[in-house]
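The material for today's practical consists of a large collection of protein records. Read left to right, the backbone structure tokens trace the chain's path through space. An example says more than a description, so a record of this kind follows:
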Amino acid sequence: MRVVVTGATGVIGRRVVPILLGAGHRVTALVRPQSERGANVPSGCDVVVASLFEEAPLAKAIVGHEAVINLATHIPKSALGIMFRSAWRENDRIRTEGARNVASQGGG
């Protein structure tokens, strides 16, 4: 099965992608344009650079896949930061606007 994974270089994605590859799936990691972690995607995994907030490149990245696993998130880095609502804005945007954009693309 062809699977695209958002958040493939994150805490959860780094664990899920090798499992999918090991199960014989063809995996595409969707990596943010500003991310330097695309180089950390496991061998055997395709990498596509696209933003969850730009619908045309996102649609192009997802087309042809049979499944989409949306693991994208942005947890504040500092322990102190997690106490401030403002530190969660990017995560909130990813989980609302980004998730909506991913879901609206469907797949297949």
